[in-house]
Amino acid sequence: MIYVVFPIAVIAVAALYLAHLRAAARRRNAQSWESLVAQLRLDWTPRELNDCTQGSERISATPEVAWQRIKGPKGLCVMYQNARVMMEMADYAARNSESVDRELLETLRSDAMQIRVYVAIALGQYAFRQLNESICVNAYRAASMYVEMEDRMTELLQGHAAGLVPDFSAAM
Fold first, then answer.
1. Which pLDDT band holds residue 60 (cuts at 50, 70, 90)?
2. Which domain holds residue 121?
């Protein structure tokens, strides 16, 4: 009896999961630019990190100072969410422009995934350990990549969706 029910249950769960993925993809593809910009969290901006890395302070800044500029877990959570939103913005630009640089899109997607991995590692380490240099380094890597991703995103939008750039630049 269990040998018959188990495969059916596994197939049913897999079918439900695939249906969920398909519905999520449809929702994502139906989003407007305004709804994407509204999803950006503005609790933290990369300018706060740039203040820490300019000039001679860059050499003398400790990981703890970078952690404070990132605003710890709060800044990491903002980066995690905004990386996903910027990836969806890149997809939106690709869907609505014929001449999008595919290499730039792949770089943006790769950056978003790397940011999310570094943030997840840093948050996981922070949850189970006291703040140490390893956590700060992962957080700083994520923040540095976030700044670069924001610059690439602006480049993509300026080149292929110029009408959308003021909204993105104002939001960030």
1. very low
2. 32-171
